[in-house]
């Protein structure tokens, strides 16, 4: 069955895309959630309108992301965690914690997938992945949209008892 997407569906398609889907998927998932409608001759004419809506949304998202990049470029985050004598944290700082703080400061929803935890500059140990595990200064990169990136400094301090 051919359908026209009425909303962006992550990993599947964007507004205005014409997709071939199974009848069951369309009837049981897409139609009840108003994510798509049947592609007929008349509805195919609406694709142009939906495409212009998609372009307007993309432009708005780009503008929001550019403002957020300007804010994030001057942002420095500080976390206080308990650490051992060698500077190893007892509980690491996760991408989720960083995303939560950046969302509050930027005004744009920052997803954990947007965050790249780069090598640390404080302890000299390179860390790429999900967590920051050492006290010190760490550089992370936040990619808001394709090509729009902001470098953010994260400072982890030892929490004194």
Protein model, in words:
The protein has helices spanning 23-30, 41-45, 47-73, 95-106, and strands at 2-5, 18-20, 36-38, 76-81, 88-94, 115-120, 131-134, 136-145, 148-158. By secondary structure, it is α+β, with helices and mostly antiparallel strands. The chain has two domains: 2-45, Ribosomal protein L9, N-terminal domain (Ribosomal Protein L9, domain 1), CATH 3.40.5.10; 68-158, Roll (Ribosomal Protein L9, domain 2), CATH 3.10.430.100. The strands form three sheets. It has a four-stranded mixed β-sheet with strand order 4-9-8-6. A three-stranded antiparallel β-sheet has the order 2-1-3, with no helix packed on it. Strands 5-7 form a two-stranded antiparallel ribbon. The protein is elongated and about 70 Å long. 19% of the residues are buried. Mean pLDDT is 84; it is low at 120-127.
């Amino acid at each position: 069955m051919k359908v026209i997407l009425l909303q962006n569906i992550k990993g599947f398609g964007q507004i205005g895309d014409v997709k071939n889907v199974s009848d069951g998927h369309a009837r049981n998932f897409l139609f009840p959630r108003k994510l798509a409608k049947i592609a007929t001759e008349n509805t195919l004419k609406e694709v142009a309108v939906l495409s212009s809506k998609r372009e307007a949304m993309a432009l708005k998202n780009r503008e929001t992301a550019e403002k957020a990049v300007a804010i994030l470029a001057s942002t420095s985050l500080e976390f206080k965690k308990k650490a051992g004598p060698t500077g190893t944290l007892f509980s690491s700082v996760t991408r989720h914690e960083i995303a939560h703080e950046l969302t509050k400061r930027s005004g744009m929803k920052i997803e954990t997938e947007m965050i790249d935890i780069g090598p640390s500059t404080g302890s000299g140990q390179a860390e790429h992945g999900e967590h920051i595990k050492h006290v010190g200064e760490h550089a992370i990169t936040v990619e808001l949209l394709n090509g729009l990136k902001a470098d953010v400094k994260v400072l982890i301090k030892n929490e004194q008892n």
